[in-house]
Amino acid sequence: MHGISLPERATSRPAASRGLAKRLAIFGAAAAFAVVPSLALAPAAFAAGEFSVTAPAAGDTDVAQAGPGLTGFAGTNLDAGDTVQVYYTAADGTADTPAIFGGVQADGDGNWTAIANFGALAPGQTLVSVTVKELKDDEAGTVVETLPAYSFTFKDAPVPGDPFTVTSPEQLSTVDTATPVFEGTGTPGATVEIQYTGRAGNQDSAGTTIVKLDKTWSITTDFSDLEPGGGTVDTDGVRVLTYQTDADGNELPGADRQAIVFYFATAPVPLIPLSLTLDPTSTTVSDTAATGIAFTATGFSPAESLTLVITDPTGAVVVLPGADTAAQLFAEATDGSAKGAIILAANAPVGDYSVALTGDRSARVATGTFTVVADPTPTPTPTPTPTTPANGGGSGNGGSGSGTGGLANTGLDATGIGALAGGFLLVGAGVVFAFRRKANA
């Protein structure tokens, strides 16, 4: 391992790992008959055969990369519990630079694989010389076996001759425009894309371009999908990842992604005014259970989840019929608005209710109140009073009430009534006549 001098054994393997032929040479033919049965009964503590590397092999060309500067190694006969390290010389001249950082995977037969990182090579370098060692997986990293050094050639340089960089804006700088220009260098003809985290956690593109023949690139960015009010120092700024890819969208070997954090002086997407409107603000118990209280809200982050909490006149949280204590809904993806209706139980207490609508991502809170009053007392319908019929009994002689039940004595005899009736007829005739004369005049 780099920076540590590891003692190397004089032999390639411990005595216990030598082949059967070596045992016969030491102990003789007679001893072999005594040793073989014991080996057959004891469990194998190592893989049979010699530790080796099968890929990449010595002299290989066009070795592919699994990622920028990464390539796979494979081999055989790794002892159980041991590990592998690949060493090379870095661009700064450091010898024995380790290339494996993620450990080694091995099966029960001693076959092993690992990913090696050659990101410290010189720019444009494709030919690399490596030394592969089998190590004990202990704190000292004791060397078990060192294979002879060999070389192979990458198809593409792990570190391109045209480094991919972002030169502007600088890390942690503040820009005074909503559309800052990003600039840098790269491989001519490659595609550069800038990505950032937009609303609802979506990965959005701030712009793309093609690297020019002079190895430079620039992008006038668009961050219009940022959270409203986001991107400033107060909201932790914006973190972007800048990629360099080929025409098929594959990242170029050695072209590490560039992460830049910067701040907007003013949020490119302003905050939407926060509001909560309740309609009606006063209603009866029956109407609240039947049609409810309509609400309309603005000012939340588009597509974020919202939590609606209602408290009754006693301060207790209201459990809405058919819902949890805190009803959850979502703001519109276009403008961050929300609407709905609050339906209370049929036996809801009268008094003032408080409403709080909270944006779970933006942490913005809109509040309002409404009042529930008792249902009006119905006005009773009057009951008709029955009338008592007049007593029809009597003797029929005028005062006693019995007999035929004639009309009451009014003081006028038949003669007087007849005269009065005649007078009314004359008057009536005179009215008709006057109306007719007037009509004929």
TrEMBL record:
<protein>
    <recommendedName>
        <fullName>Gram-positive cocci surface proteins LPxTG domain-containing protein</fullName>
    </recommendedName>
</protein>
<keyword id="KW-0732">Signal</keyword>
<feature type="compositionally biased region" description="Gly residues">
    <location>
        <begin position="391"/>
        <end position="404"/>
    </location>
</feature>
<keyword id="KW-1133">Transmembrane helix</keyword>
<dbReference type="InterPro" id="IPR019931">
    <property type="entry name" value="LPXTG_anchor"/>
</dbReference>
<keyword id="KW-0812">Transmembrane</keyword>
<feature type="domain" description="Gram-positive cocci surface proteins LPxTG">
    <location>
        <begin position="407"/>
        <end position="441"/>
    </location>
</feature>
<keyword id="KW-0134">Cell wall</keyword>
<feature type="region of interest" description="Disordered">
    <location>
        <begin position="372"/>
        <end position="404"/>
    </location>
</feature>
<feature type="transmembrane region" description="Helical">
    <location>
        <begin position="417"/>
        <end position="435"/>
    </location>
</feature>
<feature type="compositionally biased region" description="Pro residues">
    <location>
        <begin position="377"/>
        <end position="387"/>
    </location>
</feature>
<keyword id="KW-0472">Membrane</keyword>
<keyword id="KW-0964">Secreted</keyword>
<keyword id="KW-0572">Peptidoglycan-anchor</keyword>
